[in-house]
Amino acid sequence: MHPVLFRFGPFTLHTYGVFVASAFFLAIALSLRQARREGLDQNQMLDLAFYVTLAAIIGARLLFIVVEYRYFLEKPIRIFKIWEGGLVFYGGLILSVTAGIYYMKKHKMPVLKVGDIVAPSLAIAQAVGRLGCLSAGCCYGKETSAPWGIVFSDPDSLVPLEKLGLRLHPTQLYSSIGDLILFLILYTMGRRKRFDGQVLVMYGILYPIVRFSVELFRGDPRGGVLGGMMSTSQFISLIVFVVAVIFYIKLQNRSTSSPGQD
Known about the structure:
- By secondary structure, the chain is mainly alpha-helical.
- 63% of the residues lie in helices and 5% in strands.
- The protein has 8 helices and 4 strands.
- It has helices spanning 15-38, 42-67, 69-74, 89-106, 111-136, 171-190, 198-215, 232-257, and strands spanning 4-8, 11-14, 150-151, 167-168.
- Strands 1-2 form a two-stranded antiparallel ribbon.
- β1 (4-8) and β2 form a beta hairpin.
- α7 (198-215) packs antiparallel against α8.
- The longest helix has 26 residues, at 42-67.
- It is globular.
- The mean pLDDT is 87.
C-alpha cells in the first residue's frame, strides 16, 4: 500500500497518522453533533473528548508495547513513533473508558447517555482508522489464495520483508467493513433505544464478535494466552463480550421494572 503520503525534505507525512487523526476528528464531530441534540453541555463534551482521546492513544500504544516488547527492546526509540503504526485498540479502550468515567463522574455528566452518544462515533472512527492500518501495512493478514487477497510491495510498510509480494488476507479491510456495519447498527439503535446505555452496551457485545472473528485471519504477532489458544485481543474480546451481555440484561431489567426511568 502507501505508508508514506509524501516527503518534503526531512519532513515525512505518514498515511497512517493522517487516517488516525481523521478518525478522531470525525468521532469528536459526530459526538458533539449528537450531544447538541441531546441538550448536553458542549464545553464539557469537548473537554471529555480531549481527555478520552489522549487516554486512548496512550493506552493503545502501551498495550502494543507490552505485546510486542521484543520489537522495542532492539530500538527503544520506536516507542515514540506512533505515526508509523502500532496501536492496540483494547488498550486504548480500557484507559479511555477509565478516564472518561472519572471525568463524567467528577462533572456529574450522565454516563450512560454520553456512552450512547459516543459508541456509534467510536465505531465509525475505527472504520476510518483501519484504513490507516491498511496503508501502513500493520495488522496484516495470513497468506491466502483468495482472489481478494492483497499484496504489499513497499519496503516502508510494516509488513515484514519476507511477506512482501505475498498475497495476504486484507484483515484491515475486514475490520473496517465490520466496524462500518457496526456503526450503522448502533446509529439506528440510538434513534430507537429503550433505555440509556443500550447503544453503549450493544457496542460492547457486537464489537468483540467482529474483533474475535478478524483475529482468526491476522498474520502479525498477536501475543498469546491460555497456551496460545487465543490471541491477547481475542481473550479480551471474550471478557468484554461476557461483561457487556451481563450489563445489557441488568439495564434491560431495570428499564422494564421502572418504565418511567432511563
